[in-house]
Specification:
Number of strands of chain B: 22
CATH class of the largest domain in chain B: Alpha Beta
CATH topology of the largest domain in chain B: FAD/NAD(P)-binding domain
Order of helices and strands of chain A: EEHEEEHHHHHHHHH
Shape of chain B: globular
Strand order of the largest sheet of chain A: 2-1-5-3-4
CATH superfamily of the largest domain in chain B: FAD/NAD(P)-binding domain
Largest sheet of chain A: 5 strands, mixed
Bound molecules: flavin-adenine dinucleotide, iron/sulfur cluster, FE2/S2 (inorganic) cluster
Oligomer: heterodimer
Mean pLDDT of chain B: 93
Largest interface: A-B, 102 and 121 residues
Distance between the termini of chain B: 49 Å
Largest sheet of chain B: 5 strands, parallel
Shape of chain A: flat
Distance between the termini of chain A: 52 Å
Strand content of chain B: 15-25%
CATH topology of the largest domain in chain A: Ubiquitin-like (UB roll)
Chain lengths: 262, 549
């Protein structure tokens, strides 16, 4: 079987587009050049159908890594639109340009020992945030439908919790920053704010701290060693007999009958 | 307006008809019965793609010679180098560092941070941008036994039971033990975990858990972990240097056979670089983009098995490589969402799987392989699957139950990304069910390591999806994000320890590559492909046939 590896079926059949018989073809313009592709494909799959192999501009293919930010217009329409290439369906007459990279301002910082309040620190690192002119272009551009201008406004006001939560869905594609007349890198400032919020503002989990101490004191080592050394049959028995916490149990309230292994 | 065709809308009526009674039962805590251990085995043997003979064969060379595995994997392992070893000049390194990390997903970044903490200089090679990885795609959550009713003991049992007792015990124990330390580390780095008002972690059940221990950050848990780790790595630029679009294509060994660097390939300038280091961590993730048996995949673009290919060539043994995880619930409709993962959280919140008649056919939180087998069985043998307009099979996932069980707006709040992804194609998943079928999700096996992340090759460490043994032949949700960070950190710390006492002066060699080529020839492998493949090629046939030249 291993005789002639070239006879193997080609790799990667699972994502190659094989349009069904009678599929309708549409014209799109990849960086201005016309290609005919079957309708209903995402921009990313349409570009691959045209014959491109991505090096940049493609990461997760699932709308979360932000590698595939894209600008496009329709022929005959002045409006500039934006989206993620892996999430936006290609439509007839689209003129497409991906933006695989955009330089962003991102000053280094020390999360551990910040000098002033988080808000002061933000002002020091990102003074430009406070010069937002409120044009709203970023919010109109964001492919994740985030109200970017609003989280910038919350930052200015010192509501870092609000800004952290509002910006949470950001995939860091950089499209907002590419259009900002005040030259703000909104998404890097938001990253800073989220970490500051997670570290210094969100309350800490006390049960976690306690468990960490227990682990560091070696509390579970013996129990785990016992399990490691056990015969499979005995582990199976323990597995089958273990109690299941009820789905609707209240947080931190339910306790199993056998507490000797906790 | 609905994104479903009139035919599918007609079928949805059957789901709606059985819904009120199902919701009532769920409220009373009544479940569709789970399979017994014997039934699980029977279902797996008959319906899981891993257990069928077709599409699998023995690998012809290398440390695991004779192991039966998916033929796509055997084919990749039997590939030859893209380097002309005669031409390449190894006398001078382009980069010198203490630690080279190959792959900048969660595992690689965790290893780099751990080593930097110990004062090492680190270079990270990545094929795509830093963080473009499977890690960003993880939505559901990360497990750790940090609640009062839970302990690493129960976490251990759940992991090893979920893996059908095929996991390596020392690795499971290491993971269960370190889990709360990892969550604490992430909390300390400023990760935005879902928390109650008093700071208590919000935790949920996942498939095969006995305690609620799934931690999350909205439905972007992996993305949040990745961006926090990447951000921290950027803050440490003085000790961590990241080389993007420069994948490793070959490991370098010294005259004693110890790993001491790698050859990187700049995808844009097509240059090769020699990196010399005291130790190497491989963290290149999985192989979803090999599209085993033609299945679609949930994996990111760079998941092409590179790490196992180069490590295998250098003589590292693999473990459990015959085993692949199909996620039971990949979207199959609309066509744009094919392969898209529907997290287990949807079932964790109470949505049920239903056949074409709107009837339940399995316990919604079986281990993944069992759940996949149940769905494949329902669609093939039982013929109660729904057929989509493009000829794909599937079953319903009754998401509207979630709002009925937990209150209006729960879906939008708990699953915002999923909600948007379907809304885009005019399907409101809080009102209409989704269509699903198993999809290629996770590389269960990989490079064999010990509890410190050490491989069989001196100086070579591995962590994350590229390794095997942690999850055995089946992984439960939420243990992979954990695995990559536990073993990423362990690999980084141990490599740092080892690097401290090591000089960086061994003679760089690619002799293992020549040796492997000779073995291929001897084994009679004709026309081997060139590997690692680095990037998948999705150009359609009509284009490929015109790529003459
Ligand atoms: C859609 C999806 C959902 C998931 N959900 C969950 C979940 O809820 N909970 C959970 O625990 N797990 C989940 N998983 C699994 C988990 O996310 C992955 O197994 C894990 O993140 C893998 O991490 P890693 O660091 O090992 O690999 P990756 O994160 O994939 O990182 C590997 C990196 O190496 C790079 N690389 C590849 N080849 C080379 C090369 N030759 N040279 C240099 N770099 C290279 C890749 O491009 C990538 O950047 C999910 C996976 C997917 C795909
Ligand atoms: S906020 Fe900016 S960087 Fe973030 S997703 Fe929106 S446009 Fe992209
Ligand atoms: S684009 Fe820039 S200036 Fe305009 S609202 Fe957004 S942040 Fe402010
Ligand atoms: S490829 Fe990751 S968001 Fe599109």
């Amino acid at each position: 079987m291993a005789d002639d590896n070239k006879k193997q079926k080609p790799l990667a059949t699972g994502d190659r587009t094989i349009p069904p018989a009678g599929a309708k073809m549409i014209a799109i313009y990849i960086m201005g050049r016309e290609y005919m592709v079957p309708e209903t494909l995402t921009i990313m799959k349409a570009i691959e159908y045209a014959g491109y192999q991505y090096v940049r501009g493609c990461g997760c293919r699932g709308g979360i890594c932000g590698a595939c930010g894209t600008f496009y217009r329709f022929t005959g329409d002045y409006k500039l639109r934006s989206g993620l290439a892996c999430q936006t369906v290609a439509e007839p007459g689209m003129i497409i340009m991906q933006l695989p990279f955009f330089p962003a301002n991102r000053p280094d910082y020390k999360l551990e020992n910040m000098q002033g309040t988080p808000h002061e620190e933000l002002r020091k690192l990102y003074p430009e945030v406070f010069k937002c002119v409120g044009c709203g272009t970023c919010s109109r551009t964001c492919p994740m439908d985030i109200d970017v201008m609003d989280y910038i406004a919350l930052m200015k006001r010192g509501d870092l919790k609000g800004a952290a939560i509002k910006s949470f869905d950001c995939v860091m594609c950089g499209l907002c920053a590419s259009r900002c007349p005040a030259q703000i890198s909104q998404f890097t400032a938001a990253m800073f704010v989220r970490r500051v919020y997670g570290k210094h503002i969100l309350p800490k989990a006390e049960h976690l701290k306690k468990r960490v101490e227990e682990i560091k004191s070696g509390k579970y080592e013996k129990l785990l060693k016992e399990l490691e050394g056990m015969k499979q049959e005995d582990v199976k028995k323990l597995y089958v007999e273990r109690e299941r916490e009820p789905d609707l149990a209240e947080p931190g309230k339910w306790m199993p009958k056998d507490t000797s292994k906790l | 307006m609905s994104g479903y065709t009139p035919e599918l809308k007609e079928l949805i009526k059957k789901v709606e008809a059985t819904r009120p009674a199902r919701v009532e039962k769920a409220r009373r805590g009544e479940h569709f019965p789970a399979l017994t251990m014997d039934e699980r085995k029977k279902w797996l043997d008959n319906y899981h793609p891993d257990f069928k003979e077709e599409g699998r064969r023995a690998v012809a060379v290398g440390p695991n010679i004779g192991t039966i595995m998916p033929e796509e994997v055997a084919f990749a392992l039997e590939s030859t180098s893209r380097l002309d070893t005669k031409k390449i000049n190894l006398s001078k390194a382009d980069y010198e560092t203490d630690l080279l990390v190959i792959g900048a997903g969660g595992a690689g970044t965790a290893a780099a941070l751990a080593a930097a903490d110990k004062g090492l200089k680190v270079i990270i090679s990545n094929k795509l941008r830093h963080g473009d990885s499977n890690t960003v795609m993880a939505e559901g959550g990360i497990q750790a036994a940090d609640q009062e009713s839970d302990s690493p003991y129960y976490h251990y049992l759940d992991v090893i039971g979920g893996g059908h007792f095929s996991n390596r015990p020392e690795l499971v124990a290491a993971m269960a033990n370190d889990a709360p330390l990892i969550i604490h580390w992430l909390e300390d780095l400023g990760m935005m975990f879902d928390k109650h008002a008093d700071g208590r972690m919000v935790v949920r059940h996942g498939g095969g858990t006995s305690r609620k221990r799934m931690h999350s950050a909205g439905d972007m848990t992996g993305a949040e972990i990745m961006r926090v780790l990447r951000d921290e790595a950027k803050n440490r630029a003085e000790s961590i240097k990241v080389l993007e679009f420069s994948p490793a294509v070959e490991l370098l060994l010294d005259e004693k056979g110890a790993a001491c660097g790698a050859v990187l390939y700049n995808l844009e300038t097509k240059e090769y670089y020699i990196v010399r280091s005291k130790a190497v961590v491989i963290a290149t993730g999985g192989f979803g983009r090999l599209h085993i048996q033609g299945f679609p995949t949930t994996n990111h673009y760079g998941a092409t098995a590179d790490g196992i290919v180069i490590a295998y060539r250098a003589g590292a043994a693999l473990e459990d490589i015959e085993s692949t995880q199909y996620h039971p619930t990949g979207a199959i409709y609309p066509e744009q969402n094919v392969g898209l993962l529907i997290t287990e959280k949807v079932r964790g919140l109470g949505a049920q799987l239903l056949n074409i008649d709107g009837e339940q056919f399995c316990f919604p939180l079986e281990p993944r392989d069992v759940e996949s087998a149940c769905i494949i069985r329902e669609c093939t043998d039982i013929s109660k699957g729904v057929i989509t307009p493009t000829g794909r099979f599937g079953v319903w996932l009754d998401s509207p139950m979630i709002d009925l069980l937990h209150g209006e707006g729960t879906i939008k709040k708990e699953l915002p990304a999923k909600y948007i992804q379907f809304k885009r194609y005019h399907i409101d998943i809080s009102k209409e069910p989704m269509l699903l079928y198993p999809t290629l999700h996770y590389q269960n096996g990989g490079i064999k390591i010990d509890a410190n992340g050490r491989s069989a090759i001196d100086g070579l460490y591995a962590a994350g999806e590229v390794t095997g043994g942690v999850h055995g032949r089946n992984r439960l949700m939420g243990n992979s994000l954990l695995d990559i960070l536990v073993f990423g950190r362990r690999a980084g710390l141990n490599a740092a320890e080892a690097a401290k006492t090591k000089s960086n002066t061994g003679k760089l060699s690619l002799a293992h590559v020549d040796k492997f080529s000779a073995e291929l020839k001897k084994a009679g492998v004709k026309n081997p492909s060139v590997g690692p493949i680095l990037l998948p090629d999705y150009a359609p046939e009509h284009v490929k046939t015109r790529q003459w030249g």
